[in-house]
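The aim of this short unit is practical: by the end, you should be able to scan a pair of folded records and say something sensible about each. We start with the first protein, listed as its amino acid sequence and then its structure tokens.
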Amino acid sequence: MDIIELFKYLLSKKSETPDDGGLLDFIAEHLGEGWQAVRVDKEGVKNLFISKRFGEGDHLCFAGHVDVVPAGDGWIFDPYEPVEDEEGFIFARGAQDMKSGVAAFTQAVKEAKDFPGTLSLLLTSDEEGDAHFGTKIVLEYLKEHDMLPDFAVVAEPTCEEKFGDAIKVGRRGSINGYLYIQGKQGHAAYPEKAINPIHQIAPRLPKLAGKELDSGDEFFAPSRFVITDIRSGMQVTNVTPDRLDMMFNVRNNTKTTQKEILDLVENILGDLEYDLRLTQGSYPFMTDTDTKIVKNIDKAIREVTGITPKHSTAGGTSDARFMAPLGIKVIEFGVKNDTIHSVNERTHKDEVIGLYKVFKKLIEEWQ
């Protein structure tokens, strides 16, 4: 089975979160003898950690997920029957996010003849969901058993305009905000007898909506206050509402924390009766670009594609957020990211082959 045959096989298995479609058992069997597999399954989520020790040196882990988001309607092909068109694009759910990455590193480690240390795969079926019982609990197991990797590559799609042009060396954090403003219900004809929370917040919204909370830096964009939902009222025209609820998100870099957000809201809404709750979905992290993993992946990408990738922290979150706090030097690299989660998700077979070649070279030339 070559890399494209493997890729198409993975795509043919319906594995919507948290179903793995039988792929974790298949991958363990596909790697063959000499690989030590550990299953850390919980609450219907299936996880696989499989490793092979070649020597005494570094432990390099390739990580990813086999689960995909629901296909949705409007596909030109069956989303679980991969189709390759005459231009070489392969259509199926998960083609970019991220069965391309899983296929590439699975084939690369399977063919590894030597490595100055340990190679491993960490795979989950719960990345696209809540992620409570996926990579996070596998890492807890590995920490408990002194098996944490030194370096990791998460093969999420990272490239922007062409394959090889970007890797992720960090990610912003994600702070979710839940705000409510208390008013006083009344008849719309007697506004002086009511307290309208919509009227209260309306003149203040420009001071919150889209506000940059810091200036960013070389690697991180500014943290921005993004309002995602506002609702109030009873869907009638003659009743002043007694409450307004608003939700927002801040993709924060290392310069902005929950404290800065609390201070901002207090400064703008402090004279109102309000309540604010913040949750931290993930924390920002940055992998030093002078570390071995960044230098080696840069070199492998240049040798395969002729491109020197830029170092980015843009985008959403990934399971790399669970690795960095444990001291694992982690980066992300994968195919282009332009159709993930969309109808007619696709990737070009040349990108999948290229990704496999980069990972193979990374392993062969690790130093």
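Turning to the second protein, read its sequence before its tokens, just as you did above.
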Amino acid sequence: MQRLAGRHGLTLLRTTAAHDCQVAAMADMVAIDCGQVGTDASRALVQSLRRATDAPIVVLDGGLQAAEVAQLMSDGARDYFAEPYNIPLIAERLEHLADARRSRREHPEEA
């Protein structure tokens, strides 16, 4: 298994429980595998996360229809990657989003 984010810890959320959203609020970014939870649960999770945090949300899934992806982006997702996954590209994007989030949290006066 390849490590996606070298300088950041990753937490996998498997439910839409309020506790998970509180944990995510402390994260530099959030990635959701829609293939694991389904479209409706993914929408609910994106909406809950958006209320809990301003961390960027990235959606990973190759089975979504264009309208479903558009809805997740409208709900607050920041980026989307379809299968087959380009792991180096995803890793670079996740690192960039996490670094930017951390910088904004550490230096809010510069945001």
